[in-house]
Amino acid sequence: MSSENRIWTQARNAAVTAVRINDLQDNYAFCWQISTSALSPTDDWYGTCERYGQNALPNPGPATATLLDASMDWRDRMLWIWWSEVGVTDLPKLAGYQPSDFTTYHNVMYTGNGFDPATAVGTRWDPTAGGNYRLGAADAAAGGIAIGDLCFYNGGAATKAMLWIIASPVVS
Amino acid sequence: MSDEFRIWTQNLYQKISAARVNRLQDAMCFFAELDQSALAPATALNGLTAYYHQAECQDTIAGGQTTIIDSSRDWRNRLLLQIVVQQNAANNLPSGINYDPDGAVAVAAHQWYTGSDFNADPLAGGGGHYWEPMVGLRFAAVQTVGASGAAQGDFIVWNQSGATKWFFSWIEQTPDAA
Fold this sequence. Notes:
The complex is a heterodimer of chains A (about 170) and B (about 180). Chain A has about 170 residues and is mainly beta. Chain A has one helix and seven strands, in the order H-E-E-E-E-E-E-E. Chain B has one helix and ten strands; from the N terminus they run αββββββββββ. In chain B, strands 3, 6, 7, 8 and 9 form a five-stranded mixed sheet that branches. A four-stranded antiparallel sheet of chain B has the order 2-10-4-5, with no helix packed on it. Chains A and B meet through helix 1, strand 1, strand 2 and strand 7 of A and helix 1, strand 1 and strand 5 of B.
């Protein structure tokens, strides 16, 4: 991991000072629910995580979605998600890649807890609004996808996508 | 700096408990690669930096004029999430007296990879990896400097639109792609 985003580098066995803890809080990003929000009246949301990725999105058939992330439970989260479809030969590190050649779609969505990766029915987002794509948090296990995984159903041709996701923590 | 975003204010000589360190991590923004991502299979990137700025870029040099946006680090080989808002006069920028959030000429958003091949030399025509949200306005990380006035690794906007442009931008950036 690069150290360039650090505010300071903590030396081994050095004391963590109050100044440094405060400096850390002053400079790092926190995510809060706005004070008048009625989204979750009994719980304050705080914290966020940002994820990015580049994923192949095959079209193996109507009964299978592609696993995007299994590192946390993606159900019941508010997401600000950015999605770009890129050609197989136009991936960022390949010679054919040109940033201006593709469109980025974005949306705010709540994943809820009803998406079925086997049927692609339930709460999901279709980035291009064309009917072929469905992104959601699995609420059932299917095809190697576990409950809580972030997954993507592709009803069109095989393709690849770049993703950038800002996620709220789960509602406690 | 304001302390309004702090979860607590740590006092001098106060013990830093494990609960507080954990609380801090619960609330912080972390940035990581999806665990099924194929972007960099050998090296997952962690960490994130967010930038914002406003700029005016002129086009008075034949072949494209470079305006340096940031030279604090090497911007080559980064994934960026960038939102650009174009205004039609200096006074309409956020620092201007006529700024109106609804008055943008154009708004564009994109996630993109800077690569390491942009040629900023005015004689070279602005080739390589770039994002061109508005015609003739290319954002890029400089590889070849030439007579551009930039340094290698600078994040620049290259203007060959034929007119001065005003804009401000929000950029989120990955750390070094090892």
